[in-house]
Amino acid sequence: MIVRLAAGQHRIVARRQLLAAGVGSEAIKHRLANHRLHRVHRGVYVLGTPDLDRLGSWLAAVLACGDRAVLSHESAAALWGLLDHRPGAAHVTVPGRGSSRRAGLIIHATRSLPAGELKRVRGIPCTSVERTLIDIAGRPAVELERAVEQAFALRLLGRTRVADALSRADGRRGVRELRRMLARLLHDQPLTRSELERRFLKLVAAAGLPAPLVNRHRAAHRVDFVWPGKRLVVETDGRATHDTPFAFHRDRARDLDLELADWHVIRLTWWQVTEQPERVVELLRRRLA
Prior knowledge:
- The chain is α+β, with helices and mostly antiparallel strands.
- 46% of the residues lie in helices and 21% in strands.
- The strands form four sheets. It has a four-stranded mixed beta sheet. Strands 10-11-12-13 form a four-stranded mixed beta sheet, sandwiched between helices.
- Helix 5 (73-80) packs across helix 6 and helix 7 runs parallel beside helix 9 (175-185).
- The longest helix is centred in the C-terminal third of the chain and has 16 residues, at 245-260.
- The mean pLDDT is 85.
């Protein structure tokens, strides 16, 4: 019974699980004395050898904090693959008030932990990716940005889930910066290709720059915008059509063909066109001078 239970839990068992399975207190005490069980936290044991891998350590931390506890913060970020694992106390979130520390544990209390923000990864209850990013939003910007980019690269983020989680996170430390990063990476496609092209042309006109030719063929490729006299090509990249492995390699091959034909290529994203128009205009002015 104990072996079967532990086999599905990274060799970890909780005292309450053993009692529910019919293993009595004396039997537990006997196995501890014979070193068949080893105490990890109060009421939590490891079966067999006392050494634990990080998955076992994380599950032991969660079980030590009760049935409603979940791995969270930096520990959940490492479990999801968003941050590198760092040895140290495990972060666990429980419903209630007042965070606390116990040996090997950092316990965060929360008044709100909706079912949609609870997941199970590799058998370990943990916070969702969206909730995890909110929980670590107070970390240095470079680390938070790395975690957001990794979540996006692993395709773990959902627009609706992000919006719902952020709506409950107003006022928390670092959330404003997290919103900015998510807007840049996750919501980088509110415009269709034609809308993005119109936005770019409007920007060019407002800056008083020469109007480009639109959707013309150069070096056997159709390009978004071209200034023939300056040998300049501008491509406006939308994530929906350019953020795939095939599109990535196709775009680079096209850029190489154009450059070999003496065309200079500038690629602009939706974020750059809408949020950094001054920088875009300055670059165009230099290239068109």
